[in-house]
Amino acid sequence: MKDFDMKDMKQYDEPANLLKALSHPVRLCIVRGLMRKKKCNVSFMQECLDMPQSTVSQHLQKLRSAGIVATERNGLEVNYILANERIAHIVTILLGEEDCEHE
Predict the structure, then answer these.
(1) Mean pLDDT of 21-47
(2) What keywords would UniProt list here (predicted)?
(3) Residues with Cβ < 8 Å from 81, sequence gap 6 or more?
């Protein structure tokens, strides 16, 4: 039996794409914030991160494209939520649990 089989490389595409999307400090911070707060709009994130709205939106788009976050509309307000619970587990492993208490 081979330990490494190139025929099975497709099985690594999704996990690799999730890790790529998380591979930026701002995106990790956004995910950690959503783990704590459960849902949040761009304005709140922009204020917390002290970054331009366009920058925060670009990071959110990468997370959304990877299926890590999703949106929830409440009237005119759009909130972001974690769309993939596996991500919460990964981030907890990477960063620890001490700051992930739910509000």
Answers:
(1) 93
(2) DNA-binding, Transcription, Transcription regulation
(3) 34, 38, 39, 69, 70, 71, 72
